[in-house]
Amino acid sequence: MQSAVSPTRGTGTKRIGRDLPVFPPVGPTKVSSSVYTDPARLEEELEKVFFRSWIIVDRSSAIPNPGDYLVWEEIGQTVVVSRLEDGSVRAFHNVCMHRGARIVDPDRGNPGHCADLKFECPWHGWQYDQTGSVVGVPARIDFDAAELKDVRAMEVAVHEFAGWIWMVLDPEHAVDFEEWMGPEILEELGHFSMGEWEVNAFKVWEMECNWKAVVDAFIEVYHLYGAHKNSIGDGLSQQYTYQWLFDRHSMYVVPSTERIEAILDSEDHIADAISHYYVFPVNTFNCSASSLQMFQAIPVDVNTTRYKCWYLCHPGGDEEYMDRVRYGWEGFCKIAEEDLYAAKQVGSTGKSIAYKRNIMNQRECRIPHFLENIERMIRE
Q: Which pLDDT tens digit goes with each residue over 195-237?
């Protein structure tokens, strides 16, 4: 038994039950292959989706103390996230306002600690405080004073929730965090109190396909019987996977095949099933009562995706519980390798003249919902 109290639905919203629809009325659909293969499309997605959405940086525990910082570098961006003396977190683009050098070099320690609470650009020695404001310029007298007035690195919107640090790269287009998340996802993630959980493992893979194809695989269970037939197989029930679509996000509840009746009786998806949450555009939580994964699909280029996974467990678990946690991580890594293999087969056809469109069945309803949200942000 683990020492922590296992999460339950309690009086929260019921997401599984004999009186509920298994999936929403979104019929079979199709989409052009260019959505996945066009490099120009990816550039639009970066500017209008990634730069304007709330994306997880890391666990709050990565920078626990004042002066601690980390550097996040993905999708061509570099950002410094720092813990201030009052315990809050601030973030700014890691670009010197003098001549564009990287202010903080992550190769010198990441995460790191800034003892004097100042960062110094290694090229010409400009100094920045933890919020990104310029606080020191060598030979300041030689500059135009107007150019240096209130100069600062570009800010990044940042927020801590559920033990995670979240950010929006372009704060001028940042929607309020709670509005972005919506009441359904806030409620669902709140059941797990994951701010109290600990990182047991972390790993990064690269997948040879478009980032949306990776997300697609996260948000449907149709591939279990193909890609995972030698691992998961029919251990999880596709027929009784309950799916829900929210404003930007979505979720499904996946019961084990052996325990379907018991779960339908308990109606507690938090305690008795896998609860899977997709937080648009790239944050995915795969949660059970005893452990959870958070993974991301970060585009490297139009046909390469960085797949990042944090594996969390309850703190202070006994030996039996930790054995189950280790076994769970080993199993997840095997499943990820199966996904890597399948992703390579997907990515290998990106330039084929025979690849013209994707077709989805009605149980793959989370995919068109995801793609429609991307379209909406690009049009706006």
A: 999 999 999 999 999 999 999 988 998 888 888 888 887 888 8
Q: Which residue has the tokens 């997709």?
A: 278
- Among residues 46, 20, 38, the alpha carbon closest in space to that of 351 is found at 38
Radius of gyration of the chain measured on its C-alpha atoms: 22
CB atoms within 10 A of CB 281: 23
The pTM of this model reads 0.94
CATH of domain 55-161: 2.102.10.10
Half-sphere CA count of 169, side-chain side, radius 13 A? 22
Q: Look-up: residue for tokens 């990064």?
A: 204
Nearest to 237 by CA among 269, 192, 197: 269
Phi-psi region of 115 (alpha: psi -120 to 50; beta: other; left: phi over 0): alpha
Residue 222 burial class via C-beta count within 10 angstroms: exposed 0-12, middle 13-18, buried 19 and up:
middle
- Domain positions in the chain are 29-52+193-379, 55-161
Give the domain 29-52+193-379 fold. Naphthalene 1,2-dioxygenase Alpha Subunit; Chain A, domain 1 (3.90.380)
pLDDT surpasses 60 at 2? no
CB 242 within 8 A of CB 13: no
